[in-house]
Automatic annotation (TrEMBL):
PANTHER family: PROTEIN MCRC (PTHR38733), TYPE IV METHYL-DIRECTED RESTRICTION ENZYME ECOKMCRBC (PTHR38733:SF1). This is Guanosine 5'-monophosphate oxidoreductase. It comes from the Bacteria.
């Protein structure tokens, strides 16, 4: 496997414009790639406020080839291309992305198998994401479906199987062989998840020690009474031939794809059967917002029902109400995370000015990652009703010895952010 790059997100990559991976994926929108079994984190394009179906991994227009606003790992079986955060040091693995993932997924992997001296492989990243996908799927309850069951007893409740009955019950001893369809929690999906858990526990047990993950594992193990490690390949084949398609179980569809790749230790993806391209695509703007929430614990706004909502109109019922979603509120100050170097002085400014007005706040700010700055910068005072705009630059370490050193440095930046008083 030849490793290309790495390259950075939202950057020109003319040197790779003719590479088969880039040419195959250029101008392919993410909704197509999601259908082709690429893994997209978080699990749905439609569930992201930062990505949409018109976003791409690469664009090729007017003779220019660029990466877009995603990071991840792509491979065609011959070459592997890593797209890293533009705020990471390009000569190293993307420690910034790894650390943010570690933080929001509640892992402590420094000096472990995915720690300081180890480069995170494609397979490592699959395993790394498994507990998150498992928890999301189980939020819909343990998956159950109709399965065929064979019985040989006196409580007939299905179709009698004559051949099996003759083979097993002659001379007649009061039992009848029959088959029935039952709604069961022990099915191809839960068995697939169980096999994945057993594999990960042998190789990466430390990833499963979080209490939420332990509860998820207990839920799966309690229903998979038919589990046998000798049935792994049969279970994999069943799931490959019968993917989850119901829209209600979208989370289980993503978990199913992930488990198949982990168990096969190979990949499925976009392209011809001869040169299949596979990949893990990560919405890094979503990661950045989730990371800041984890670090600060600030009041979080968003469309999911467990997050806060800001009403646009006063004294208006839900039928005509409009909602707005600043990322955070701290001390009555709206805060928006922006995964970009340069703010849009029209849209970004207008957005934050709206939040300041709706919250009757005296100021509002942006939080942006930075390679060389740290701290607050005043952008200006708003005319009319007033209010101050500021930007807080969050310095991502660039000079470090190893991953341990990177973690020590970024924790200092985190402490400075948490200690910040906006007034």
């Amino acid at each position: 496997m030849i490793k290309l790059g790495p390259v950075k997100d939202n950057s020109p990559i003319e040197e790779l414009s003719d590479h088969p991976i880039v040419k195959s994926l250029a101008n392919q929108d993410l909704s197509v790639l999601e259908e082709e079994k690429f893994l997209i984190f978080p699990e749905q394009v439609s569930g992201s406020v930062d990505l949409n179906s018109d976003n791409f991994i690469f664009t090729q227009r007017n003779g220019t080839t660029r990466t877009c606003n995603v990071v991840g790992v792509l491979s065609d079986g011959h070459d592997e291309l890593r797209i890293c955060s533009r705020f990471s040091k390009i000569t190293e693995e993307d420690y910034f992305l790894r650390y943010m993932l570690q933080k929001i997924l509640n892992y402590n992997v420094v000096n472990k198998k995915l720690g300081a001296s180890s480069e995170m492989s494609y397979y490592d990243l699959l395993v790394f994401l498994f507990p998150y996908y498992l928890k999301k799927a189980l939020s819909k309850g343990v998956y159950k479906e109709y399965i065929n069951k064979e019985y040989d007893d006196s409580n007939i409740k299905g179709s009698i199987e004559i051949a099996r009955h003759i083979r097993n019950n002659v001379p007649y001893l009061g039992k009848v062989a029959y088959r029935t369809r039952e709604f069961s929690y022990d099915n191809k999906i839960t068995e697939l998840v169980r096999h994945t858990i057993e594999k990960i526990q042998l190789e990466y047990e430390f990833l499963l020690l979080n209490e939420d993950t332990k509860n998820s594992i207990r839920s799966i193990k309690s229903v998979t009474n038919d589990y046998s490690r000798f049935n792994r390949q049969r279970v994999i084949r069943q799931n490959i031939s019968s993917p989850v398609k119901h829209s209600y179980f979208t989370e289980y569809s993503a978990l199913q794809r992930l488990c198949i790749q982990i168990l096969n230790e190979d990949k499925t993806g976009f392209g011809s059967d001869e040169d299949k391209i596979h990949g893990i695509i990560i919405d890094v703007a979503w990661i950045w917002e989730a990371y800041i929430w984890k670090v600060t614990g600030w009041k979080h706004y968003g469309k999911p029902s467990d997050l806060e909502t800001l009403n646009f109109f006063d004294n208006l019922g839900s039928d005509g109400q409009q909602h707005r979603y600043p990322d955070f509120e701290f001390d009555e100050t709206p805060i928006d995370t922006k995964y970009k170097r340069h703010l849009d002085k029209r849209n970004d400014y207008n957005q934050l000015a709206t939040y300041i007005h709706l919250m009757s706040s005296s100021k509002g700010g942006f939080i942006q990652p930075s390679q060389d700055e740290n701290g607050c910068q005043k952008l200006g005072d708003i005319a009319g009703f007033g209010g101050e705009l500021f930007s807080y630059k969050f310095k991502v370490p660039q000079e470090y010895v190893d991953y341990d050193d990177f973690v020590k440095q970024i924790k200092i930046t985190e402490d400075e952010l948490k200690a910040l008083n906006f007034y």
